[in-house]
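Before a colleague's protein record goes any further, I have to sign it off. Alongside the sequence sits a line of tokens, each denoting a local backbone shape. I want your independent view on whether this chain really folds as the tokens say. Where you disagree with what is written, explain briefly why. This is what I was given:
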Amino acid sequence: MMKAVFASFLALPVALSLVACVQQDDSPKDLAKALPTPDQVAIKLPDTQRLTDSRTSAVTATSPHVLGQIAPWYVATRDVSRTFNGGSAFVLGLVHAIVQFPVTSVDGNVFTWGPWSDGALAPAEYKLDVEAVGDGTYKYQLSGRSKVGTAAGGDFQVVIDGSADPRNGDAKGTGSFSIDFDASKRINPTDNSDAKGSVRANYDLAHKHLDLTLASTDAAGAPVTGDYAYDEAADGGGQMVFALSGNAGGGPANETISLRSRWESDGAGRADARIAGGDLGGLSATASECWDDHFLQVFYIDAISNGGTLSASEGQEAACAIADADLPDAP
């Protein structure tokens, strides 16, 4: 999960070690409010205590697309959104936690926390630089450098590069940040041996919107890209779109796999999916699944485009809380 990758190279306890730094209490008064809290960014997907995660996992593994069982694409929707929303909340929550402490040093309009490390045996040290732009917005960079061997004492490398605009008021701010996982690996290969690629995120708290662009490589070194967007309505309903471009098998060309999920305030929802491009040529495979307010499947259908044959169908589309399919765009 992306959230686990974040945590692997920037454990939250390092923020708490800032109390050991030389401190000055002259950071901007509104800086702590400029960066959202994890709760503000971790936009929530409908959930219920009536179904446990363990039951969900068991049913998904053994009974895909079975009427009356937990809908697999509800589970996928919840897992994807929790991964990306939760990962974004972790990054912003970490920076938010750091700026609660008195600043370590000030140079003009640039405020620095650190450098610090998570104990004597930590293989890397980090610092946070925040620039007060002057128009009420902020830019920030969390950087690190290795403490190991010949790499020790080198230049700081930027891992998180972001900006925050709090001018619309509390819980209405906007911002963006990027994460360089390759830099995190160079800084601390001991803990980040699997880190690679990058993520770019944008958030709008007033509209409860989050979107991300991901770039990495697969096990063979081939490029893999992804796009994610999440929107929550005022009543708790919402939608998520996730598209991944990579080699799904067969020839060397990349296929695009995309999923659009929508749900009502009570949790009942619908997911529509498409796989296209690559080895499929001019064809595409599409599928739709609906679930009720207990997340149990009430409808499923899949087919091949361009007059292709129907592969599977379960239930009646009339049972769907969201009547019409809304397939993600083909590449």
About this structure: Residues 72-98 form the longest helix (27 residues). The helical segments are 2-9, 13-16, 31-34, 38-41, 53-62, 72-98, 181-187.
